[in-house]
Structure formats: structure tokens, C-alpha cells
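User: Please fill in residues for this 826-position structure.
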């Protein structure tokens, strides 16, 4: 593959070819090497431009060294020195938000090609802070920048707030700064992708970055440092306080806002919060739960983690109607040292991690039904550390139904497992055909691939990136891994799967940064060097089988990362890092347009039919997954052409007959390892399975199987399962939703009314506890699942009524989790 001839007198070009030709050829193979300075017609070169380029997921980098004002030169864009920080945002009007819709066509004319780069430098001095900011703007994917700091009046922008960009193609941008000597802030806002800015002073000091309404970028939500919730409906022109003492707030669907508040205490008083919602931007507010620990949103579900009466355990409640009605999730209760975590959620189902008692570092994954209420055990000994909150759970977005994660084996080794059927069964990853078992393998002929992810990064292993997949790069997975009996502390290699994780290829030796471009038609990688500057980038046009090496600069840079347009449709990639001079360090970005290496667009003959989930050619059910087969048109590995921005995934679904593979083990049943048969749990044998859903008591009669949510199989094997309405009302342990209350109502209500309300609530609470104790806690209300039920099985299957109490808490899933009792719901 030879790039086209480009007029670039400064570029040098080197082509190194590395192909994975067979198991015996494990080391790099160099067929040809050329290092020549090229002129306009002297040979093949690849264009490059210098500029600062960082991507939308705002990150902060810090270099050591003396501070110096940034400037722009013709060769190196915003010059910055060591103490400075950089943040930036990509402002693509279409590709980023449509990347997940596999049939969406992204029109190149809709992309703004705008990149904003914000550099900040701050020095604390006694009780004051001194700082400087620079704002740069590019309208050509970062190939060149211009200094637009004058548009924000040379104001210092607060580093912790960064660049807040609006959803979809709104063009909205917000930068936040202090107002000197006052407890409030000033914001600069743009409606044209940073081409111009206006400013306004806020009547409060924001606690965190403003949250745009995903459906209307003119509406902003923010919590102040005084824990007041503020809203603006005209893009920061006017602000209105809608509630006090707010602890957490999130946008729901449409105009709905959910938030927790503690009207009589502080946000640290967990388990005593109230969950509220408003659908009219705070003009009326409805309390939908009390005694909340935390809350979160996932798919069409709302989750609330609730503390029991004694304050010793928590339980999960779920709502599918925006909080109007709640059901208790059939999950084990957790104590103070445990936590819940939503690993993944969509409109069909939920993956929920429940931490084991004690500081074990692992728990159990449960998968829900389509109501998010009835859960089945999916995977035991799931690795999820209590200190730091690290899990390797990965949603493989490039193929339906595939998830990877790590388990902590009995010998304390960390091992990778994968499910191809949305949690129905888990299995080890196959050993790559061109790799050998490493020193961790007891049997050198039998081992598997283990993927390095968040846990490895937390353990400071040399793993620069998490596994990478893209929805429009069908079947592709890039990941660091090791081959043995468990994850190795040795330096990992890069592995590629082109079939969603069924088979793997050792693609690159050693750790690399990598990216997917052109909907999978191009892979790029830069070798991780911790202390040496770099000048080469590798790229592959055949899904990682062969790699070419390009020298992108004659003046090496200390590499810090790659950046490309979200959605993996672009052919532009920026390599960013820094160079050192005698007195300082400065940021550099080199943007490469890889489209120049392709001489043509792809046509029909460049694609081939591919059956997903095809792992048994002899079976008539080959390719059936979650009830149907999918055939895709995929690019041939030997086709060197451009998919382009308008590339649309072509897939053809075909329904399948039902088999036991289309069913999860029902509540109270589990699958033994390497078995498709569901076995009844010993501690639930002989128990009548009754539970409360939507205010009605139901009885479950099952042979041990229930259909996987979202499975579309037809006829075939359909195990018997009945849910019988017992025509009996029941209650969950949440307070009934209250009527809407105007947020402007007077807070000085009559003392008589307050006393009456308190008395009514007390009487209702006592009556509710008696009702729950008599009718719900008789050992048949399936809130006492699994671990809790085991503890009380010898006592006739009854649980203490204290375990059922009015408390709603919806956990928030944080990237960093340093509190073992923090529920991670989102």
C-alpha cells in the first residue's frame, strides 16, 4: 500500500510492513524500509499539519516545567509550557451523536470540522489564585489553529469546568470563570461553535459543569456550591432557583428532571434523602420516594437504593414509569460495606453487580427481566474491587449481545470471560492461533486469552488503553492481553478480533495506543514509550493482519495520546504530545489525513457476506443469537478502498427456532459451569415463589427458564412458565407518590396541617409495617433472594421485617469509586 503523491517538502516517509502470516512468525517482519526526504514529485508522502488537537471527552494533562505564555507559530500550534493544562472539545454536528445508529447516514456537509482547545495555567498564592487561559479554534479538524482568546476578553477560565459543549448539532459552548471578589461566576457562551462569544454573570457559584437538556440545548441545569438547583430556559440569559439543599440532579427523558434533596439535613445524611421529579422545569415538583440513599437512570429504568429501617442494609427499587410506581428488585440486600453497581442497561434488561459481604473484591452479576425487577444469577466471583471500584466489564458495541469481564478465580488469579448471549452463559476467550501460552500457564498447550482493562490500569500495569469497539465497525475489537492461565504482569501485546470475540489474532507486540477509523476500514496504532520520544505511527487496512509504519515527523515528540472524530467515520487522526526545549516544554499536535492513501471509494465487489455469531458450521442453529441470525456485508480484507462517511451497515436478520440457548435460568435456578441446563437452588426448593409487582401479588410457576429479554426466537423449545395474578393487593416499601406541589408555594404552612400530615404518615407507616410483616414477609416475598435467603433458610425461610423499609436511593455510577458502600447506579 503506497500513499498518493502529495506536495509536502517537510515530510519524510518510511514504509515498514508487518504481517501476521502464521503461528511461527511471531516477531515483526520488515519487508521494505525507505527513509527519503520527498519533494512534490519525488515519491510517495503522506500529508501532515501541526496544530493542537484534543477530543471531546475533556481531559486534563500536566507537564513539569516553567510556565510561559502560549503563542502560535507557523510550525507548532499553541505553544505551552510545563505547568499549563489543556482541555478541548470536538464540535461535530452530526457524526458524534449518530455514531450509535447503525443505519444513520452521516452527511459530510453537516460536520463543522471545528475543534476548540483551551489551555490554562494557574498558580495558587496565599489565599488567592493567579492564572491565565488561552483559547484556540480550528475549523479544519485541527490541522491549523488561530488564537481566539480575545473573544473571551482574555479571561481566566476555570480548569475544573473545562469546555461544556451542547448536544447534537446545537453549536452551543459554555466556558466558566470567576468574578473577582464575589461568590459568583461569569460564563462565556457561544451559539456558533465558538466563532463568537457573549458573557453573563451568574447569581450563584456553580458546583460542577452545567448539564444541557439532551433534547433542548437552550435549557441548562446546575447545582450551586450552596446546593441550590438552578435552571435556565434561554441559554443562560436568565436563571431561576427551583429547589434548595439538592444533592444530585439528572436529566430524564424530555423535560423531566430527577433530583435528591434533604430538606432537614445535609447531603452526607445518606438514607434520609427525598427523590423528586419535575416535568415543567421546576414549576411543580413531585416527591416520588423518601429515605433515599442514592438514585440513577439506565435505559428506560429508574433505580433507587434504599436504606432499611435499622439503617443496616439497603435494597433496590425499580420504576419503568418515571417514578410513578416502584417495584422492589429481586436482588440480595447489601450492608454498609457492600454496594450495587449497574454495569449496563438498555430498554430490554439490566446487568447488576451485587458486592459480596466482606472485603472480597468480587461479587455476583445478575441479569433482569424486561421489567428490571426479577433477576437471575449470571456470573459469580465477578471482579469488582471495593477500594477504587474497578471492574473490567466491557460492552462490545461492535456485535450484538457480547460482553467481556474478569472473574477472580479460586487461586486468586484474574481471568477474562465473555458472553455472546447477553449474560446467559460465560466462557473463557480462545487462545489466539498465533500466540503461545506464557509462564502463568500450568499446561502450555491449554490456556486462554485474558484482556487487560480497568483493573490492570489501576494496578499500574503498562496498559495505555482500554478495549476499543465501535458500533459501525462490525465485529472488531482491539485490546491488550496476555495468554496464559490468568492476566499476567508482563508487558501485554495488542490483540484483534474480527468476529466479536470468538477468535483472536496477536496483532502487535507490546503495548500501543490505537484507534479505529473509516468504520473499521483502517486501524492505527502508536507504540507506548514511557520515556522516549516517538516519530512513527502504524496503520492497517486489513483488520490488523498486516501493519505499515509511517514516519510522521523528523523531530520526535513525547507522545501523550491519539484523537479522532467520535464515531470512527473520519480519516483524520491527530497525534498529540509535547517537545522539550532548553527552558520549557510545549504541546504539539500532528494531524494526518489518511484518506490520501486510498485511491478509490469502495464498491459492491469490495464487500462480502458475513454471518455473525457463526461458531459451529455443522449446526442448523449456526449464527442464531438471541433468536435470530444476522448477515452483514463487510469489507474484504484484501480490499484497499475508502468506506467513507456515508457508509451504512447492511444487515439482514433471519428469525430462528427457540432452543434452551434463548433462555436464562429463572429466579431460583442457576447453570453449572459448562452446562446449558438450569438447576434449582437448594435453598429455594419447596418455596412458593410470590412477589409484588405494580401493586399486585403474583405467583411464579417455572420449570427453571425464562426468555432472554430482547430475544426474538419463534416456536421450537419453549419451557413452561406462568405468572399467576393472585388478585391480592400488595405494597412495596416506598411511600406512595404525592401530588404535584408548586415550587413557589409558601414554606410557612400552618402548624396544624404539618402536625396532621405527620400523624397521618406515622399511622400509615405503622399500618404499612404491620401489613408488610403479615402478608409480605412470610418467607414468600422474593425480596429475600439468594444470599439473604440462605442466611435465614434454617429459620423457616422468614426474614426480619426490618429488611423492608421505606427508602429510595438510586446509585450513581462513577468512573472512580473510592467508597465501598457507594452504590454505582446511573
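Assistant: Residues filled in for all 826 positions:
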Amino acid at each position: 500500500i503506497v500513499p498518493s503523491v502529495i506536495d509536502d517538502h517537510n515530510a519524510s516517509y518510511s514504509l515498514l510492513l508487518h504481517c501476521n502470516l502464521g503461528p511461527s512468525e511471531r516477531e515483526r517482519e520488515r519487508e521494505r524500509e525507505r527513509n527519503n526526504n520527498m519533494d512534490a514529485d519525488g515519491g510517495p508522502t503522506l500529508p501532515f499539519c501541526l496544530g493542537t488537537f484534543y477530543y471531546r471527552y475533556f481531559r486534563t494533562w500536566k507537564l513539569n516545567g516553567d510556565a510561559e505564555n502560549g503563542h502560535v507559530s507557523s510550525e507548532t500550534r499553541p505553544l505551552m509550557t510545563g505547568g499549563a493544562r489543556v482541555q478541548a472539545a470536538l464540535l461535530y454536528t452530526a457524526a458524534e451523536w449518530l455514531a450509535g445508529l447503525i443505519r444513520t447516514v452521516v452527511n459530510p456537509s453537516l460536520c463543522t470540522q471545528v475543534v476548540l482547545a483551551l489551555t490554562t495555567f494557574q498558580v495558587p498564592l496565599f489565599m488567592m489564585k493567579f492564572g491565565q487561559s488561552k483559547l484556540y479554534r480550528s475549523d479544519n479538524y485541527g490541522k491549523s489553529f488561530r488564537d481566539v482568546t480575545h473573544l473571551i476578553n482574555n479571561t481566566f477560565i476555570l480548569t475544573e469546568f473545562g469546555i461544556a459543549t451542547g448536544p447534537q448539532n446545537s453549536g452551543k459552548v459554555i466556558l466558566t470563570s470567576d468574578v473577582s471578589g464575589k461568590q459568583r461566576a461569569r460564563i462565556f457562551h457561544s451559539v456558533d461553535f465558538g466563532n463568537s462569544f457573549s458573557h453573563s454573570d451568574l447569581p450563584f457559584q456553580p458546583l460542577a459543569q452545567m448539564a444541557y437538556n439532551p433534547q433542548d440545548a437552550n435549557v441548562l441545569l446546575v447545582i450551586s456550591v450552596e446546593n441550590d438547583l438552578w435552571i435556565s430556559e434561554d441559554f443562560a440569559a436568565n436563571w431561576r432557583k427551583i429547589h434548595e439543599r439538592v444533592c444530585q440532579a439528572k436529566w430524564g427523558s424530555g423535560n423531566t428532571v430527577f433530583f435528591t434533596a434533604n430538606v432537614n439535613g445535609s447531603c452526607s445524611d445518606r438514607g434520609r434523602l427525598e427523590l423528586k421529579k419535575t416535568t415543567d422545569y421546576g414549576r411543580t415538583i413531585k416527591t416520588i420516594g423518601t429515605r433515599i440513599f442514592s438514585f440513577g437512570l439506565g435505559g428506560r429504568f429508574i433505580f433507587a437504593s434504599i436504606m432499611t429501617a435499622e439503617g443496616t442494609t439497603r435494597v433496590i427499587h425499580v420504576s419503568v414509569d418515571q417514578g410513578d410506581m416502584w417495584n422492589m428488585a429481586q436482588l440480595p440486600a447489601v450492608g454498609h460495606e457492600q454496594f450495587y453497581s449497574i454495569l449496563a442497561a438498555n430498554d430490554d434488561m439490566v446487568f447488576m453487580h451485587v458486592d459480596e459481604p466482606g472485603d472480597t473484591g468480587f461479587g455476583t452479576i445478575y441479569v433482569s427481566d424486561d421489567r428490571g425487577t426479577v433477576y437471575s444469577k449470571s456470573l459469580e466471583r465477578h471482579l469488582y474491587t471495593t477500594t477504587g471500584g474497578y471492574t473490567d466489564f466491557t460492552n462490545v458495541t461492535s456485535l450484538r449481545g457480547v460482553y467481556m469481564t474478569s472473574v477472580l478465580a479460586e487461586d486468586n488469579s484474574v481471568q477474562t470471560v465473555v458472553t455472546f448471549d447477553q449474560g446467559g452463559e460465560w466462557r473463557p476467550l480462545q487462545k489466539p492461533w498465533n500466540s503461545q501460552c506464557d509462564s502463568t500457564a500450568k499446561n502450555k498447550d491449554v490456556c486462554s486469552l485474558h484482556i487487560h482493562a480497568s483493573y490492570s490500569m489501576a494496578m499500574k500495569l503498562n496498559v495505555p488503553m482500554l478495549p476499543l469497539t465501535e458500533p459501525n465497525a462490525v465485529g472488531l475489537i482491539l485490546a491488550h492481553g496476555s495468554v496464559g492461565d490468568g492476566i499476567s504482569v508482563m508487558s501485554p501485546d495488542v490483540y484483534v478480533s474480527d468476529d466479536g470475540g470468538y477468535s483472536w489474532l496477536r496483532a502487535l507486540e507490546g503495548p500501543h495506543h490505537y484507534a479505529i477509523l473509516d468504520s473499521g476500514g483502517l486501524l492505527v496504532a502508536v507504540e507506548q514509550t514511557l520515556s522516549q520520544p516517538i516519530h512513527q505511527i502504524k496503520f492497517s487496512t486489513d483488520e490488523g493482519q498486516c501493519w505499515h509504519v509511517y514516519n510522521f515527523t523528523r523531530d520526535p515528540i513525547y507522545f501523550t495520546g491519539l484523537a479522532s472524530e467520535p464515531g470512527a467515520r473520519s480519516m483524520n487522526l491527530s497525534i498529540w504530545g509535547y517537545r522539550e526545549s532548553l527552558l520549557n516544554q510545549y504541546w504539539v499536535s500532528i494531524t494526518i489525513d489518511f484518506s490520501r492513501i486510498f485511491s478509490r471509494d469502495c464498491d459492491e465487489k469490495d464487500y462480502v457476506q458475513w454471518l455473525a455469531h457463526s461458531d459451529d458450521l455443522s449446526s442448523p442453529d449456526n449464527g442464531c443469537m438471541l433468536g435470530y441470525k444476522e448477515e452483514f456485508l463487510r469489507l474484504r480484507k484484501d480490499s484497499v478502498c475508502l468506506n467513507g462517511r456515508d457508509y451504512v451497515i447492511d444487515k439482514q436478520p433471519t428469525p430462528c427456532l427457540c432452543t434452551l440457548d434463548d433462555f436464562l435460568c429463572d429466579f431460583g435456578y442457576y447453570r453449572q459451569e459448562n452446562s446449558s441446563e438450569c438447576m434449582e437452588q437448594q435453598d429455594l426448593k419447596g418455596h412458593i415463589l410470590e412477589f409484588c409487582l405494580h401493586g399486585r401479588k403474583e405467583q411464579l410457576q417455572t420449570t427453571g427458564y425464562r426468555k432472554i429479554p430482547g430475544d426474538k426466537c419463534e416456536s421450537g423449545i419453549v419451557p413452561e412458565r406462568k405468572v399467576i395474578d393472585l388478585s391480592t393487593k400488595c405494597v412495596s416499601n416506598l411511600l406512595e407518590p404525592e401530588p404535584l406541589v408548586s415550587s413557589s408555594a409558601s414554606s410557612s404552612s400552618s402548624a396544624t396541617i404539618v402536625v396532621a400530615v405527620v400523624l397521618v404518615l406515622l399511622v400509615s407507616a405503622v399500618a404499612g409495617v404491620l401489613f408488610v410483616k403479615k402478608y409480605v414477609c412470610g418467607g414468600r416475598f422474593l425480596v429475600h433472594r439468594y444470599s439473604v435467603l440462605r442466611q435465614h433458610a434454617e429459620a423457616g425461610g422468614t426474614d426480619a421485617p426490618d429488611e423492608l423499609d421505606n427508602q429510595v436511593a438510586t446509585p450513581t455510577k462513577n468512573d472512580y469509586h473510592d467508597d465501598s458502600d457507594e452504590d454505582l447506579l446511573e
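For context: The CA atoms of residues 135 and 200 lie 18 Å apart.
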